[in-house]
Amino acid sequence: MALTRLSVSGVRNLHPVNLTPSPRINLLFGANGSGKTSLLEAIHLLGLARSFRSTRLTPVIQYEQAHCQLFGEVLFADGLRSQLGVQRDRQGEFVIRQDGKNLRSAAALAECLPLQLINPDSFRLLEGSPKVRRQFLDWGVFHVEHQFLPTWQRLQTALRQRNSWLRHGRMDAALQAAWDRELVTASEQIDRLRQAYLQQLKPAFEQVLAELIDLSGLTLSYSRGWDKERDLAEVLQAGLERDRQLGYTQAGPQRADLRLRIGSHNAADVLSRGQQKLVVCALRIAQGHLLQAVKRGRCVYLVDDLPSELDEQHRRALCRLLEALDCQVFITGVEAAQIESFWREDTPLAMFHVEHGRITQTLAHQE
Ligand SMILES: Nc1ncnc2c1ncn2[C@@H]1O[C@H](COP(=O)(O)OP(=O)(O)OP(=O)(O)O)[C@@H](O)[C@H]1O
């Protein structure tokens, strides 16, 4: 998919924006604080109804404004189009619309506009908590496997039920045993889906990484969240007393993790910042390739401050890979000169200058 139109109002310092982005490469340049990241944030809001900069949305709404409003038209690979709209006010009221109808959840938005974000916070994928890596993994499984979302919702319900029972113990044991069976079934299914996805992700990741940087010895592995030799039912039974003391369930897919290691070290402990950025990029680009293999479209990449941490050779290699993905990319940077010359002549490219919240298109070729 590609965003063919984008309108933004009431977001951070941005003056009302009406853009017709390139379906391929969009470069946004401007001084610090000019509003480049805010535009990526607006696209993120349109695709996920949440920001990547702040857990609360109030700071995103422009000072003095009552709400922020995003509108976009998405073009799918099969030629169909969809109109998306998101509005959020200071009281937390959300309106999410697709093709004139109100949506109750953001999941449909995410399906319509799959986004991959690479920004200075992306290091958290390596050095942050397992939750960040589970979210990364589940993004991929969600987009390629339709069973994932309903199964994940069943898992959350059964897990909440068990944790409440562990804390308060107010339930008939037979009824709780039935909930445990539901928990085990959903957990095993989620684990199977994750493992199947990872089997495809690993070779794709290794191939992309090799094109970016030589990091021989880097391995990606998965731990499912409970002992790999034992059934979850057995593990839950064996850990029941401890779970009761803690008041939550210790084992299960809610504890799964991805491990990136170099030899016996955590990759995050030994890689430089630039190397970490390239590993994160390789993971996210590999996900883009897998999505292309199954969907009627592609994901949209938001790359905030692409040049930072990277030397010229690696910037060029990263741009080549993003270009080869054949999808829509929004890239920000302080100076155009850092990456504007890296693109093939026949790649559709649009360039925008961002100044004090105003966005002006300065170049478009091969549209
Ligand atoms: N709610 C808000 N209302 C109005 N302005 C805001 C609001 N929140 C932040 N700002 C301002 O909007 C600007 C946002 O800048 P943004 O982070 O998009 O800049 P940038 O071009 O990505 O800069 P950098 O190159 O430093 O990353 C900042 O100047 C900030 O002070």
Task: Describe the model.
The chain has 367 residues and is of the alpha/beta class. It folds into 2 domains: 1-114 and 296-367, P-loop containing nucleotide triphosphate hydrolases (Rossmann fold), CATH 3.40.50.300; 122-294, Glutathione S-transferase Yfyf (Class Pi), Chain A, domain 2, CATH 1.20.1050.90. It has 11 helices and 15 strands. The protein has helices at 36-48, 107-112, 124-127, 130-144, 148-168, 173-212, 232-238, 240-246, 267-270, 273-294, 312-324, and strands spanning 2-9, 17-19, 25-29, 67-75, 81-89, 94-98, 101-102, 115-118, 218-223, 257-262, 265-266, 300-303, 329-333, 349-355, 358-365. The strands form 3 sheets. Strands 2-1-4-5-6-7 form a 6-stranded antiparallel β-sheet, covered by helices on one side. Helix 6 crosses helix 10 (273-294). It is found in: Cytoplasm. Pfam families: SMC_N.
Write a brief caption for the model:
The chain is of the alpha/beta class. It is built from eleven helices and 15 strands.
